[in-house]
Amino acid sequence: MSRTFDRYISFVFFIAGIGFLVESRKIATSAYGSTVGPDIFPTFLGAILVLLSIRLFFETFRYYGTERKKSSLDYKRFFIILIVAILYAALLETIGYVITTFVFLVIGFQVMERGGLWKTLLISGVFSYGVYYLFVEVLQGSIPGFPVWLN
Fold first, then answer.
1. In the chain, at which end, N or C, are there fewer CB atoms within 10 A of the end residue's CB?
2. Which residue, of 39, 62, 85, is where some domain finishes?
3. Which residue range is the domain that position 143 belongs to?
4. Of all residues in the chain, what percent carry a pLDDT higher than 70?
């Protein structure tokens, strides 16, 4: 992208992040059967979006030389990730969070960079189960962890 585009888009993302933060404060703070309310995730995403947009804005001042070179678009990778993301959302409740997230991450990592299968499997497994454990056991939230037939 260009320096000008990055500056404008950082401003747009900053406004969107502020919007997430403001609107997430209007959501109820707790849900039935869970100590983690539905306002936590949008608040967290809004804060991350604000911080990353500020970083992007300041990084535009560190570009060296002229505008960045245009790179060719990789439609094959994009459509593979898109299809896997749609399947992830469709199968999340049926198969459970841990298995679908593990499979999604493995495919995503391998599509982005081939090789390193053992490292991919380890990172995907630790991340999917770690986030599940953190959310369900520590924060006492509720998400479908494993399929019903495995429990």
1. C
2. 62
3. 75-150
4. 77
